[in-house]
Amino acid sequence: MKKAILGRKLGMTQVFNENGKIVPVTVVEAGPCVVVQIKTTEKDGYNAIQVGFDDIRANLVNKPKAGHFNKAGVPLKRVLKELRLEDCSSYEIGQEFKADVFTAGDKIDVSGISKGKGFQGVIKRWNQHRGPMSHGSKFHRAPGSMGASSDPARTFKNKRLPGHMGNVNTTVLNLEVVRVMADKNVILIKGGVPGPNKGFIVIKNSVKS
User: Fold this and answer.
1) Quick one: DSSP state of residue 57?
2) Measuring CA to CA, which residue among 9, 33, 2, 1 is closest to residue 111?
3) What span, in angstroms and rounded, lies between the C-alpha atoms of 16 and 171?
4) Cα 109 to Cα 130: distance, rounded to the nearest angstrom
5) Which of 28, 125, 156, 178 has its Cα between 20 and 30 A from that of 55?
6) 122 phi-psi bin (left φ>0, alpha ψ -120 to 50, beta other)
7) Interatomic CA distance for residues 172 and 202, integer angstroms
8) SS3 label, residue 24
């Protein structure tokens, strides 16, 4: 069954597995999430549930969004996200679900906004090689040739150039749930996940498992 939950990245640590080996894990505060709206094929053209995560003060929510929460009869939430699940009919508005939707050993995909790196050159952004660093080369960290001069007299699309790096939605596939602490709404995920500490992430079943 397809399942998903919203969470917040708290940081990384390490734990021992049953064989006594150290496993690096990311600590994620997963849920509790509350169903705010249910999308149906008849009304919206597709099936999905809209869920909210992380309580927020009323003065930080504008009137349209506050009205949306009041209509559903749920507390104000900082994050709203749609989750497309196989069976949305089993959910009701106001229903709450927590970290125990996942169990240890589950394979998951984790999506989040990656750390922003600002404007970067081709060496950092695309892992290209630099030129000779001797005084006479005059070519050190430049992107290199742009193409022929007279024909085609332009730079082709997708040329790897300097530019904005990071701060995009990124998904890491096929991670593993190491431990679920349902009483604390915490999930330990093997390895790293996208984004900075306190960044919001979406955890779903792995599409490749």
Assistant:
1) -
2) 9
3) 26
4) 35
5) 178
6) alpha
7) 11
8) strand
Residue-level pLDDT at 105: 86
CB atoms within 10 A of CB 151: 7
pTM of the predicted model as reported, rounded to 2 decimal places: 0.82
- Taking the C-alpha atoms of residue 101 and residue 120, their distance in angstroms, rounded to an integer, is 40
Residue type (1 letter), 20 = G
Question: Tokens 């690096």 correspond to what residue?
Answer: 24
Residue 134 burial by Cβ neighbours in a 10 Å radius (0-12, 13-18, 19+): exposed
User: Residue 68 has which token pair?
Assistant: 């949306």
On average, the pLDDT of the chain sits at: 89
Residue 127 banded pLDDT, cuts 50, 70, 90 = very high
Contacts of 76 (CB under 8 A, 6+ apart): 55, 56, 57, 58, 61, 65, 66, 69
In sequence order, what E strands does the chain have?
Answer: 4-16, 22-30, 33-39, 48-55, 77-83, 96-97, 107-113, 118-120, 163-165, 169-181, 186-190, 200-205
User: Using an 8 Å Cβ cutoff, are 111 and 202 in contact?
Assistant: yes
Q: Quote the CA–CA distance of 119 and 121 in Å, as a whole number.
A: 7
Q: Would you mind telling me the total number of residues written for the chain in this entry?
A: 209
CB 23 within 8 A of CB 14: yes
- Cα(11)–Cα(24) distance, integer angstroms: 11
